[in-house]
Amino acid sequence: MATDALISIAVGVGLAAACGFRVFVPLFMVSAAALGGQVPLAPGFEWIGTGPALIAFATATILEVLAYKVPWLDHTLDALATPAAIVAGMLASASVVTDLPPLVRWGVILIGGGLAAGAIQGTTVLLRLKSGLATGGIANPLVAAGELAGAVVTSLLALTLPLVGLVVVTAACVFVLYRVVRFLGGRRDPQRKGSER
Hints:
- The protein is mostly helical.
- The protein is built from seven helices and no strands.
- It has one domain.
């Protein structure tokens, strides 16, 4: 029972992290897996494993992937995708996290799912911004291709090797947190040094 709960948490957090790369890819993949009977869905989320939901997620995935190929449109999409990725991450988590008490379940969904999606999405936004500034947006389609690959690989790991996926996602989130703290600390140090003079 505890193993089943851990696996469902791992699947949920992994799918949420994948939403940080691309909002709809993980939802499409979990919909396809659920429709094929390979992933059990939480009560109230059975609609994700239906034909109409699969078609809707597939259409949204194609549109999202194509939109990120357009230079400068990707920055506009990032403004919309950041909150959407967090919501999608929580939705993906909620659809597969089962066998937990309600308080624990929603804690995992809100904190684990939302944090994983937000951390990955924030990193991709910064990467695209740096790429845009350094190359005038020319390299952004390459960044978009990398993000798409990240979404697919992370989703596949979550669905097929969830515990491995959880380790990878946790390591990625810790790395992102470390870089953010280091960046913010580096920005404060020059001010401190300047005040000491």
